[in-house]
Each structure stands twice: as C-alpha cells, then as structure tokens.
Amino acid sequence: MRGQSGEIGHRGPGFRSGFVALVGRPNVGKSTLLNQLVGRKVAIVSDKVQTTRNRIQGVCNLPAAQVIFLDTPGLHRPRHLLGEYLVEVTRRTLAEVDLILFLVEASPNPAVGPGDRHILSVLQEARTPSLLVINKMDLVG
User: How much is the mean pLDDT over the chain?
Assistant: First the structure.
C-alpha cells in the first residue's frame, strides 16, 4: 500500500491506499469477487470463458484506506492472438500493483494442476507480493 498522510488523497495521518490485482485462471470468480469487494456491479459476470477482455478497476473506500482492485483476464497458455493479448494485459498489470490476490477455485479434491503451476511461475517472475485466495467455497460440501 502506498505511503503516509498526504501522499494520495490527503485524508489525514495514517491514511493508506494501494492497488491490488485479482489474478487466476479463467472463470475462477475474479469478476464476481471484485463486484462483492466494491459493493456494486462493475464487472461483467458470465459462465463464458474470457468475458473480461481488459482490466477493470473497482474502488473500495474504507475509513483509513482506499483499495483499488484490478480485475484481470484469466491467465492461461494462449492458443491464438486474442489469448496472447489477454495474457499480456494481465502480465502488465502484475508489474503495476502493490499486491496480487491469486484466486483458485475450491475443490473437494484439491490438487495443483499445470494451469496453476503456470500462474505460480508468472507470479514469481512478477516479484510482487502475492496472497492465495480460495474462492467458491460455497460449492464445496
């Protein structure tokens, strides 16, 4: 998160702000989580893969902080030009944020697959602090 009072927003001593990227495989729930975090619909939610084509910003205002969440296209191994563009949008975003939330889908039989390993390698290259977020817990008994 960024600086102390006066740097961004001029909201008084101790106020902080920062950028947080939501990253994960396609359809892991990044857009749904963004909408929940900011308290309104700012991102399209669909069962269709790769609905998010550009990064989408949502702002969460708290008493002592402001968090700008960036919803990114799903990270995957591209097979065509559109896929390459979507992955590049996400990779550029990783270098511009203060924190990355790596979303994975809850599963009754959790296992790290090749897609998740690929994303982990991308996150290691980014060198930005990351947190693992297990999403869709309501779907697991």
Answer: 80
